[in-house]
Amino acid sequence: xxxxxxxxxxxxxxxxxxxxxxxxxxxxRAAFEEGAVSALTKQLAAVAVALTTQCPYCIExxxxxAREAGATDAQLSEIALVAAAIRAGGAxxxxxxxxxxx
Length: 102
What we know:
The chain is mostly helical. 72% of the residues lie in helices and 0% in strands. The chain is built from five helices and no strands. It has helices at residues 10-16, 18-32, 39-53, 56-68, 73-95. The longest helix is centred in the last third of the chain and has 23 residues, at 73-95. The relative contact order is 0.10.
């Protein structure tokens, strides 16, 4: 199911919903612009979210963008561990629902 070639079909979305897709692309560009948070930090955050949501397209695209923004192997490794900690923390905190209130 996962194949980067599928992303070429985004043009089908653009053709069938041009206003919505234009709004999406404007939003996407604005979200990743350099601002109070650096473009590198935004891409590292995107990598963490992509790893957490386990979207292979997002992982590939945002790792590439993070590297283009200057991300190192060490930074990407640390951000992967942050994503893993958040996923693990969610399992631990939700495990508290297994026990009856005392």
